[in-house]
Amino acid sequence: MDEEVKDGIEDIFPSPEFPYDRELLNYLSMQRNKLDGYLFFDLLATGIAAVSDAQDLYPPRESTALQDLYDHIAAANADILKKHCLLYYILKDYGSQRASDYVDSVLLPDAHKRLIDGVYALDRFQFQGAMKNLTHPSVRLQFTEKILSTLLKYCDDGPQYIRIYVAVTNPTLDTREATIMYLDALSRVSIFSALEFVRTTPPEDRAENYRMLIDFCLSHGPGSGAYQIANLPLAEEEEKIVLNYLASRSDATAKNILIVRELHRGHVDNAKKVAMSIHRQISLGTGKDKQWVAMAQKLKTNPSQLL
Q1: Average pLDDT, integer, range 75-99
Q2: Residue 232's pLDDT is what?
Q3: Which of 65-74, 109-118, 226-235 has the lowest mean pLDDT?
Q4: Which of 100, 120, 233, 296 has the fewest C-beta atoms under 10 angstroms from its C-beta?
Q5: Rounded to the nearest 5 degrees, what angle is found at the Cα of 170, between the Cα atoms of 169 and 172?
Q6: Looking at per-residue confidence, does 4 or 151 come out higher?
Q7: Is there a cis peptide before residue 171, judged by omega within 30 degrees of 0?
Q8: 246, 214 contact by CB (below 8 A)
């Protein structure tokens, strides 16, 4: 044991108050399931404060289970500050006043309070509050991949929040999955920002990341800005990767974008070949085919519309 919690359970958790009714228990169980079996609280308790089996201890279903949870935290091989953080998280279930009083009584530093406030909000999908606290300069939280996944899956503004979170906290995207999720989020917010990110990835991953960027843009649908691919400022090697991948895809949107990009580059014959491959004839002069020329010119003369 590193340091003892001075207050006993009866001093911290007021009796007979017990907020864990069926509704709250079911809600937290549902949240844990959505978060792949582990709340962020579970990860903090187990990974940082060395409290084993946190997912089985929280939330407590009865007063004896609360005593068990308290005993595990009190006996953990962790410094007193980490124990105070976990107890503060639990006390937030008892209401803001009780939690605030505890912060004052143990002199919990502001950075640690913000960390727990952010984690508590994230576990409950209160994303605005979570981001307000987790992007504060004093706060550092591990579990980047889980944070990105949660925002991308469950937050309406997830892609924008992810962009802000990574820009502000500068976490290490040290797994392939984290890189993929960040690229997915950027592709929904700004394809130009996504392109710049791809250029910073390891050379051995770059070609695959360009192809993945195209996949993401096309999967979001034409209305999401997929046609911005036609106006990306690419270097020669990048151009080759993008054109070859667009040509390899069988979907009409990819072919249409390829036609526009070839026209934009002045390669009319190449555009005609692509059109013929999807059983279209383009004269570039009259009728419906004016749309390709018009789109190419629009992209070329006014790219700012796509930002």
Answers
A1: 93
A2: 87
A3: 226-235
A4: 233
A5: 125
A6: 151
A7: no
A8: yes
3-state secondary structure at position 205: helix
Residues 6+ apart with CB under 8 A from 282: 259, 271, 272, 275, 289, 292
For the chain, give me the number of helices (H) and strands (E)?
Answer: 18, 0
- State residue 112's pLDDT score: 97
Q: Distances from the Cα of 122 to the Cαs of 32, 125, 133, 169, 246, in angstroms?
A: 11, 5, 10, 16, 38
Task: For the full predicted model, state whether its pTM sits above 0.90.
Answer: no
Residue 284 has pLDDT above 80, yes or no: no
Whether the Cβ atoms of residue 165 and residue 151 lie closer than 8 Å to each other:
yes
186-212: per-residue pLDDT in tens? 999 999 999 999 999 999 999 999 999
Tokens 């937290």 locate to 28
User: In sequence order, what are the residues at sequence separation of 6 or more whose Cβ sits closer than 8 angstroms to the Cβ of residue 136?
Assistant: 111, 114
Token digits of residue 107: 């002199």
Per-residue b/e over 43-74, b at no fewer than 16 CB within 10 Å?
Answer: bbbbebbebeebeebbbbeeeeebeebbebbb
Q: How far is CA 141 from CA 79, 118, 119, 182, 304, in A?
A: 17, 10, 9, 17, 37
Cβ atoms of 260 and 227 within 8 Å: the answer is yes
- C-alpha span between 260 and 258 (Å, rounded): 5
